[in-house]
Amino acid sequence: MADPRDPRPLIGEPLALDLLNTRWHSAGEQDLLADLDGYGVWLSSAGLADRCPVDEAGLAAARQARAALAEAVGGGGAGELNAVLARGRVRRSLGPDGPQESVETDGPEWLAGWLAADDYLALLRQGAQRIRQCAGAGCVLHFFDTSQNGRRRWCSMAACGNRAKAARHYEKVSGGGPEAKG
User: What is the pLDDT of residue 160?
Assistant: First the structure.
C-alpha cells in the first residue's frame, strides 16, 4: 500500500518501474530521491521500509540502481544494470517446509536497488514490449502494460490520457489548432 506522503502521480507499478518513477515532471522536475525523507517515503510505498535502512548509503545505491534502470529501459545497454545485479544474489535452499529463497546483497544499502534491478529482469521475461514510457507530452513516467490487448499508452487516463484527448478535441473543433488560424 502506498505511503500517504508519497507525492508521485503514478504509484504501484512493479518495483523496477516504481523506482524509475521517483523522478517526474510537475511544475518542473521532481525527484523523490532528492533526500533521505523522500527515500524513506519511497521505501514505505514500495513495501521495503522494514527491510532497508533509510541512510545515505542506501539512498546512493537506490540512485545508482535508478540510473542503471533508466539506461537499460532507454536502450543504452546493460553494463550499469549488471553492475547493480552483481551486488546481490538469490540463495536457494531446502528447508523443513520445502524450497526457500533469500536475497543476499553486498550490504543492506544495496537491497532495494538490487530488488528493483532483479524485478526488471522479471518484467523482461514477462514481455519487454509491455514496458512503456507514457506517450503524454513531456511525461517521463513508465508503466508495465497489463491491458489485455497491450495497447495502453498513458501512465494515467485521468492525467496524460485526458490531456491528449482534450488536445485532439481542440484541434478537431478549431480546424487544426492555433497555428492553422493564423
Answer: 86
